[in-house]
Design brief:
The chain is an alpha/beta fold and about 400 residues long. The protein folds into 3 domains: about 120 residues; about 50 residues, no CATH class; about 200 residues, Vaccinia Virus protein VP39 (Rossmann fold, 3-Layer(aba) Sandwich), CATH 3.40.50. It is built from 16 helices and 11 strands. It has a 7-stranded mixed sheet. Helix 1 packs across helix 3, helix 3 crosses helix 4 and helix 4 packs antiparallel against helix 6. The longest helix has 17 residues. The radius of gyration is 23 Å and the shape is globular. It starts with a helix and ends with a helix. The protein binds S-adenosylmethionine (SAM). The site of S-adenosylmethionine has 17 residues, from helix 10.
């Protein structure tokens, strides 16, 4: 195949992409409508598009195809026609370590700045190693599965039998190469849950008790509820979301996970919901808030190019309003678990600060769970407890 052919396909797809749909959904639709692209064309166009977006705003004044070659060189340890054509002197170095490759690129392009890959550095939550975080954009995150300890050996045996690479990253978590087709390898879909490693770690903040009644108020397809249930199967659950179709997906996943004791409602937390919820009092609320998703941009690098800073403030307004509307349904002394998959302080620590200043809540603990050293997403989690009445309050 000639480089011109690959480049034409890349440019065609790039010119048609406006950032509205996530890139993987756009590519799926695009390839369906452009059946003349064979499997090799599709594979190369996907690789180039993802590489290209991983460069973020770095080298923005350089010619598009030269940028593509730099990006593809940094993202992969195998060469490509684009690397061979536009960076011939570096082709032999494609399998060096990332730091060495960055140093080589800096020699060719003195204007290359890692800080320009992700241009929102000033917005980051505390404790993030900026250099490590920026470098992580050139590395594709892994696919993680959560498995009960009793089933892990059987899963490992099936992976080995199918020659699938995997890593045991905790007694209940396996990391696999992204794109692994698990449904073709593991015979029983009930034995595992696909869930990012950092997302799994938020479970350490839930601490449910037997016979508790919890509310997952932004449940989507139920990832956090299923995690909660795995920690304490003897709980009752209310699951709700503003999007009805995401709850359909949840019902299927609950069935596979064997979760039967739950109630499901479509609730918009920006509306008054007293009519629906007036008699509810929960032992815990999971608030996995709508957010920028900046902790997951390693999986959606197109966001490095299409996200705009003003959008953070829109999410913050939503997060504060949703937080404010759920607290009254929490029992005294019980936790609100506030979570985001954002790395922005405004959506994390600042929202927690707002909630404790305006409502009777105390922060028990909070953490930015850093995924960049584990080829995982980054998440924020805080356990906020509704204060009990003091004797003075009661008098
Ligand atoms: C980060 S996702 C939740 C992910 C889910 N908890 C999981 O573990 O898979 C945030 C969810 O908040 C929901 N949401 C956004 N605005 C809302 C609103 N006004 N009321 C209720 N839910 C809302 C979205 O539909 C989305 O499903």
């Amino acid at each position: 195949m000639r480089v011109e052919h690959q480049v034409r396909a890349f440019e065609q797809v790039l010119n048609n992409y406006d950032g509205v749909l996530p890139l993987h959904r756009f590519l799926f639709n695009y390839f369906k409508q452009n059946k003349q692209m064979g499997s090799s064309d599709r594979r190369w166009a996907s690789r180039y598009l993802y590489s290209y977006f991983r460069l973020g705003k770095a080298l923005s004044k350089v010619d598009k195809l030269k940028r593509l070659a730099v990006a593809d060189f940094l993202c992969h340890d195998t060469t490509s026609l684009v690397i061979a054509h536009y960076l011939p002197d570096l082709e032999q170095s494609v399998n060096l370590l990332l730091d060495d490759k960055i140093a080589l690129i800096k020699k060719v392009y003195q204007s290359f700045k890692l800080e320009e890959v992700f241009t929102f550095e000033a917005e980051l939550s505390e404790g993030i190693d900026k250099e490590e975080f920026l470098r992580s954009f050139f590395i594709q995150p892994d696919l993680f599965i959560r498995v009960q300890e009793t089933h892990i050996q059987s899963i490992i045996n099936q992976l080995k039998a199918n020659h699938i690479d995997f890593k045991e990253v905790s007694p209940t978590t396996l990391a696999l190469p992204n794109g692994t087709k698990l449904e073709q390898v593991i015979s029983d879909a009930r034995l595992y849950q696909i869930q990012d490693f950092s997302s799994q770690k938020t479970g350490a903040y839930f601490e449910p008790n037997k016979y508790d009644y919890w509310w997952d108020c932004c449940a989507a397809s139920g990832g956090k509820s299923i995690l909660l249930h795995s920690l304490e199967p003897k709980i009752e659950l209310l699951v709700s979301d503003v999007r009805e179709n995401s709850l359909n997906n949840l019902q299927e996943r609950f069935q596979l996970a064997g979760i039967k004791k739950y109630h499901l409602k479509v609730i918009d937390l920006l509306q008054k919901n007293d009519q629906i919820l007036h008699h509810y009092e929960f032992d815990g609320v999971l608030l996995d808030a709508p957010c920028s998703g900046a902790g997951t941009w390693g999986r959606t690098p197109e966001m490095l190019n299409f996200f705009e800073k003003y959008k953070i403030e829109n999410y913050v307004k939503l997060q504060k309003a949703i937080g404010a509307s759920v607290i009254k349904y929490l029992k005294l002394g019980k936790p609100l678990i506030y979570m985001t998959c954002s790395v922005f302080k405004a959506e994390n620590e600042d929202v927690v600060d707002y909630l404790i200043k305006n409502f009777d809540l105390t922060v028990e603990r909070m953490e930015l769970i850093k995924g960049y050293n584990n080829k995982a997403d980054s998440m924020f989690v805080a356990r906020l407890v509704k204060n009990k009445l003091t004797l003075q309050d009661q008098a």
